[in-house]
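Fold this sequence, please.
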Amino acid sequence: MCSFNWDILFFLKFFSLCIMPEFLYAQNTCPEISQQLLKYGFHRDLLIRVDLGTVDKGLESCRLAIKVHLPRGLYVDPYELKSLQQHNLTEALVIADEVDLEVPEYLATDSSVLVYMKPDPECITCFKALLPLHCRYYRPSESNGKIPVVLQSPEIMIHCQKSVFSVNCLKETETEAPCSQNNLAVCHWKNMKYKMLSKELELQVPVGLKYHLPLVCAITLITTGLCSYFILSALCRYGPIHCSMRH
């Protein structure tokens, strides 16, 4: 009769019930990202939500940031970001020397925005941020009244006092970036792998049609002429200027 080692059986049961689930959990803690566009027209809001998928206590010492890459047809208003930060709504930095808010799409350049995520009160492992986006004006189109603008996949970065995530979730590269919007000291951020839950985001930007150009020019000239006439008439009648029309 073959002997059976009950100690080995106990160890196998313990490994399958306790150690194996923890091992599998550690292998599936890479973040999940979802993005959603809110509002319509030229002024949109980009809602970003990140689920880190881990409840490690060391997570409290971590800061999470998302680098959003914007094509030249989109921009973020730095003055608007400062206002939102004062109200503790959004914390972000535009990675560019200067952002010209007036230039059209064909004269602009690509840009990036570093968004510092805030904890989501509805989920203990989640972070979220709301980034206001604005569309630039495009050249008139021949036939289609809308032009698609595609948002690239963002980069996710984390800065922790101690190791929290599995090595499988961390990339080999690091990024040097400001520690926060108020603290411009350089921190070393770990680039992370993630799973994108939402589909590729595409905006439909309204543009003018070329065959409307003569009509638009005519209406603009007529409106400008009428407004100029009424302003001059009001100045001559009620203002201190003495016009030849009164003599």
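The chain is about 25% helix and 35% strand. Residues 9-28 have pLDDT under 50 and may be disordered.
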